[in-house]
Amino acid sequence: MSERTVELEVLRYNPETDGEPHFQRYSVTCREEWVVLDALNHIKETVDPTLSYRWSCHMAVCGSCGMMIDGEPKLACKTFLRDYPGVIRVEPLAHFPVERDLVTVIDDFIAKLTRVKPYLIPKEEKPVAAGEYRQTPAQLKRYKQFTLCINCMLCYAACPEYGIIPKFLGPAAISLAHRWNQDSRDGGRAQRQEEIAATEGVWECSFTGACSEVCPEHVDPAAALQQVKIKSTVDWYLAHTMPWLNK
Amino acid sequence: METITSDIAIIGAGGAGLRAAIALAQADPRLRIALISKVYPMRSHTCAAEGGAAGVIKGDDSLEQHFNDTVGGGDWLCDQDAVDYLVQEAPKELLQLEHWGCPWSRELDGSVAVRPFGGMKIQRTWFAADKTGFHLLHTLFQTSLQFSSIERYDEYYATDLLVDEGRCCGLTAIEMRSGQMRQFRARAVIIAGGGAGRMFPFTTNGAIKTGDGMALAYRAGVPLKDMEFVQYHPTGLPSTGTLLTEACRGEGGVLLNKHGRRFLQDYGMGPETPIGKPVLKTMELGPRDRLSQAFWHEQKKGNMVTTQWGDAMLLDMRHLGEQKINERLPLVRDMSISYMGVDPVRDPVPVRPVVHYMMGGIHTDIRAATPLAGLYAAGECACVSINGANRLGSNSLTELLVFGRRAALSAMEYLASDPGRGNSQAIDAQAEAARARVRALFQKSGGESIAGLRKEMMHTLEQHAGIYRSGEGLSEACATLAALRRRYANIELHDKTNVYNTDLLQALELGSMLDCAEAVAVSALERRESRGAHQRLDFTERDDARYLKHSLASFQGAAAPRVDYSDVVITKSQPGVRDYSGGHA
Amino acid sequence: MAEQVTRKPYVREVPRMLWFLRHPRYMRYMAREFSCLFIGAYTLMLVVGLKRLAEGPDAWAGFLAALGSPGAIVFHLFALAFSAYHSITWFRLTPKAMPVQIGDTFVADRVISGAHYAGWALVSLVVLWLAGAF
After folding, report:
1. CB neighbourhood size of C5 (10 A)
2. What is the DSSP letter of A149?
3. Which site from A226, B298, C41, C105 is most exposed, i.e. has the minimal number of CB atoms within 10 Å?
4. Tens digits of residue pLDDT in B419-444
5. Is A19 within 8 Å of chain C by CB?
6. What DSSP string describes B14-40?
7. Are C30 and C67 members of one domain?
């Protein structure tokens, strides 16, 4: 079993003792197949119990361990040491306030997610006793990709717009709104438009595409946002050129 | 200390906690619901469940067959009235999830699809590819956002229940971001805190599964039931313990030893079934306890493949083909490649049994009520008990929905009896004492390390409370765990600050795990028989005369728990032989 | 450590002007956006040409002569290169914005991009035909 010494440079910040963040270097013996999270756990267990970060599932599904690894937003549980020959720089996710060490404050996302009404607003009410809403595999496929968002916040850390304009609803929240809009059982698009088709909604997006490049679940938020733009544009033209369509 | 007052407080915001919260919000919008969790809801471990949720929906199935599979699968230790309730409510709950938008996989005609699962005689497992728990959790979480009466307290770690005049009146919890203790006053409390797989070193469970909910109730005087039953899932990746869902076998994957033999046929689960044509309830679709035990025997015979992480068997899915694997098992493929460097489309994947689920937990009745008035429990932290001595795959997602809702309804009935809020001063004093206990940790300088004690605990359980156990080993485990609990009094925090102090969090979690671990070891030592997931080398047979009973471990402070027994509820299925041979009816 | 503390989340400043220097990915994006300046400049030049045409044969001849100057040729080469870059980068993104689902499957990305290239080629041929190139 091969081992090697890995150098990690971790951003530390303790609001009670530090005025501002600073880097701390750790040198630890790691196994070749480890991910960055394993190295952090090893540091916490054997070198420095004060290091704080979030993690849980170690299988890229709970979304806890997003962090900047060599400047790139990554899930620490799916970033392999073997891909980093030199010193590995680990920082909290960009664009979020730092609570402590690698722990960020994500209240902003939670509030935005709530605003886009990310739940089924049924097209037609049907009692549970009447059985399931029928949905063909093709209808499922239409939105399935956008259900895969694990809320890991990597897309927000990658999005330059969100960095500059924090009011922007952002990739994950809009993708999840789009997920419900695309669901054949849902009739709530008009209600969600108020938020997502606003200036601080989809129109703040300049299609850098960074969100999709970093998404660990291949949700492709950039696609969702462009699709919302096109649909919203069509809405606008229909409303302004064919007003008789508006009842 | 800041006091937050609500009608009902829920500890844990995974599947069971969210389901309970939604049930309460829907039933009475005036109720103030405090949903308290040590992690954001979408981080809860429900998200890691892969295979599916069982519920009778198809014409060829019946409630009775789901009942029989579950009771037999549990080696007759299930309470049959609870299983009846589970199988009746299951389809309604799964349909309710469908009505909330859960992306269940579908048949061509648009109806919900079901897949085969271990120990189930009929296909009845609803699934959303191989991320069923993830979709279920996110559907519940997002649905919960429409109810303003659900007030979430994310990243609050519950430390103590507040009990006055024999009634649960709230809890204390640390707000992680400030490190401050808060008092939650409520007229009823529901615990939905999940399992405790992290007591073991090799587990599918996430870091957060540290038995906190179980320990809260246990220390407040509620017994932990059937704690000796710990489920090993047969197919985890040897490198990380990452779960490869039972659906791998449901879809037709087979298990091989190093000679390429489908060895399950040698352990009462034969005869061999044709490759690519899985037969329900036999061979690879046998129950988890039997498969894990078969692995143990094959390992003893030297028939396993050697990997750098220890012995493993091979899970061969190649014959399923790339298209089916991508469509039905995309996560399995992704994880096998990422964490093992093996593509299941091209090569068999090495796997070995891994700690997965606690059948035991907080003692509740069929109404999800604990013996402590005003306290309810649901999900993996509870033992109601529908899983008996061995849970069937895909019953736990169903359980957390059915009993999450049931806990909510029972709590509402309790509220209707106007239980009051207890003596305010007495409760304040308890909350203050809880705060003082946590602050005292900051002052200690005993020198014991959290990581060190945790390692010893894990090693002890793995060594002595694994797939096969012995009286001698368990006695040793009990002694070691008692010593570890004593040494726990001398742990020393390295981090003495307040904001997001994970050193403190891990110390508290270790306390929970040690209490649960001792309950596991003592209950296992006392059960002198082999049943389901509890296999004793010194008592190899099931002993219905003496042990067709639930164990109840009661907290005794610094001393070892006291173990009592209560009767199993048997309504229509008398204990029989668990037959997973191909010849069964 | 004192028990009572206030949180003090640290906000890292993001440069507001030269933010795109932070990552190669952002630079690529800026290159795509920047390329449209040449397309705009070329359009302006066409408008000037129209104006010259309206002013009479002499003005138009002068305009054509100016187009033959080395500076104009260099400008045209740049404009061609950047508009090609602009078009290619956008066409590559079209499958995201305009997915086409037929039954159970989405039409492959390259088919959607390819259709855009085909449209581009067709329009170019029509323009050339109108210009009397054939």
Report:
1. 15
2. -
3. C105
4. 988 899 999 999 999 999 999 999 99
5. no
6. SHHHHHHHHHHHHH-TT--EEEEESS-
7. yes
The answer to the question of residue C64 being in a domain is: yes
Across chain A, where does the E strand assignment appear?
Answer: 3-12, 22-31, 66-69, 72-75, 88-91, 98-100, 103-104
φ/ψ of residue C132, rounded to 5 = 80, 25
ipTM for the assembly: 0.97
A121: three-class secondary structure by DSSP: coil
- Domain at A91, CATH number: 3.10.20.30
List all chains that touch chain B, counting a touch as 3 or more CB pairs closer than 8 Å: A, C
Same structural domain for residues C85 and C54? Answer: yes
Please give the distance of CA B45 from its chain centroid, rounded to a whole number.
9
Residues C91 and C118 placed together within one structural domain of the fold: no
Q: Which of B45, B135, B233, B485 is the catalytic position?
A: B233
The answer to whether B562 is a known catalytic residue is no
B405 burial level (CB within 10 Å; 0-12, 13-18, 19+): buried
Helix (H) or strand (E) holding B563: strand B559-567
Told to judge if B249 belongs to the known catalytic residues of this protein, a careful annotator would answer yes
For B240, the domain range is 235-355
The total number of structural domains that make up chain B: 2
Dig out the tokens for B62 from the structure: 């019946």
Domain boundary (A64, A84, A104) is at: A104
Q: Position of tokens 């919000």?
A: B25
Which of A104, A135, A159 is the endpoint of a domain?
Answer: A104
Beta pairing class for B188-191 and B8-11: parallel
Q: Are residues C26 and C92 in the same domain?
A: yes
Q: Is B317 exposed, middle or buried (0-12, 13-18, 19+ CB in 10 A)?
A: buried
Do A136 and A188 belong to one domain? yes
- Give dist(CA B155, CA A185) in Å, integer: 33
* Domain enclosing residue A147, as ranges: 107-245
Query: Model's pTM, two decimal places?
Result: 0.96
Q: Which residues of C touch A209 (CB under 8 A)?
A: 25, 29, 93, 96
pLDDT band at A243 (very low <50, low <70, confident <90, very high): confident
Please give the residue of chain A at the shortest CA–CA distance from B449.
A45
Task: Count up the domains in chain C and report the number.
Answer: 2
Which pLDDT score, from 0 to 100, does residue C121 have? Answer: 94
